[in-house]
Amino acid sequence: MSKLEEVKEMVTDTVTKIYNTVKDNSIEITKEEKKLAPRIRTLRPTRHTIKWKAKNH
What we know:
There is one protein chain. The chain is an alpha+beta fold. The chain has a domain at 25-56. It is built from two helices and two strands; from the N terminus they run H-E-E-H. The protein is elongated and about 60 Å long. 0% of the residues are buried.
């Protein structure tokens, strides 16, 4: 296997791992145009959002 194929496989594995982590932990990553670093935040579970809206509206 050539170095290019090894790097390609490592990148694919890493991206898959990151995607699964983001999906499992309800993390949102957004990249704005004029900012250098992406914004990472944890999303609230749905039941917390529903409870908050019922309490405050």
